[in-house]
Amino acid sequence: ALPCVSMIICTYNRKTMLEKLVESIRPQLPAPYPFEVIIVDNNSPDDTAEYVRALERTGAPFRYVREEKQGLSHAR
Fold first, then answer.
1. What does the alpha-carbon distance between residue 7 and residue 17 come to, in Å, rounded to a whole number?
2. Alpha carbon distance 33, 36 (integer Å)
3. How confident is the model at residue 56 (pLDDT cuts 50, 70, 90)?
4. Host H or E run for residue 41
5. C-alpha to C-alpha distance for 51 and 35, rounded to whole angstroms
6. Cα 30 to Cα 43: distance, rounded to the nearest angstrom
7. What is the mean pLDDT of the chain?
8. CA 38 from chain center: how many Å?
9. pLDDT band, very low/low/confident/very high, at 26 (cuts 50, 70, 90)
């Protein structure tokens, strides 16, 4: 089923904060409706990409998107 709720998180070089956010979302999964979390990495130089790709491999509803152009407006 296609997701009926998409949570989109834009991030830049904040892996530690992202980990805390993901841990606050996890207790709400699985949701009683189709749900996805799209994490938009705005070209972070830290380990954000590796972290989110590891989340994707768990089968949880996390999806990684990378935006090469810097700036929140591009990430959105």
1. 16
2. 10
3. very high
4. strand 35-41
5. 20
6. 29
7. 92
8. 4
9. confident
